[in-house]
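Two proteins were folded this term; both appear here.
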Amino acid sequence: MKLGYTIVYVPDVKASLQFFATAFGFELKFLHESGTYGELATGETTLAFAAHELGHGNFPGGHVAASESQKPLGMELGLVTPDVAGAHTRALQAGASELAAPSQKPWGQVVSYVRAPDGTLIELCSPMGA
């Protein structure tokens, strides 16, 4: 077993792909012609986005839309970078909201938190042991 991909349900797949490309430099891996599903090349694990309408089809009981929640959901995407401060600044310039500025944790890691325009909670962190 291995983690193959993470899918984030969003209101506008193309806009989310563009935000993550602009803010973090990820390249487009795939965008379905319907515009309701797309993937970014992010390393071994794929980061994907799907339209809320696909979520409604997959989950007849509905789902919690991060884009409609005032508070971030209880899960995050962790992006590892040696330059947390620079990534944090680029994310804000690309339209993210700041939740926590970069700070050093007691275990030595530098961490910050931003929220993407689509509501996704993102942790920006330095590599462990760096």
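Next, the second protein.
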Amino acid sequence: MIIQIKGNVKYPITLDPSVWIFDDRKVKLEEAFTPSTVLNEDVIESNSKLNKPPVNHSIKKYNKKELLEHSYLMPIKEFIENAEADKQVSEAILNTTDNNKFKITYGELLESFLLFSIDGKQIKEKGPAYLYYGDGSNRDEPIKGIKVIELR
């Protein structure tokens, strides 16, 4: 259950969403699309600077009950930036586990989130992740089963 970022990038990347539950950059689904948190880049940037990689060193600090009750998203921007896309990249093709392909703009991809946990559990059905646009416009119908993100 991994996600590949490939295509016109300097560094192809393989993501493992199963480890994101302890990542400081995660966002609760119920808080993600409220006006005060729609990709609040200052908060995300400050959280990601806490640790490199931004994984909380004090796991005991997390309330285990809270981790098991909520669904979580991960902003995708930092992963895409780490892959170092070519300057001419203008779109992304999202390949899914059921062999569908979705085309979105590069700008939409950078502002998007990947849902990786539902009620504290890894997504098994149509997993490993669902893509939500940063503005929440596809909140009722996310793109499910993301397995490859190809930048063109």
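The chain has five helices and ten strands. Residues 41-50 form the longest helix (10 residues). These notes refer to the second protein only.
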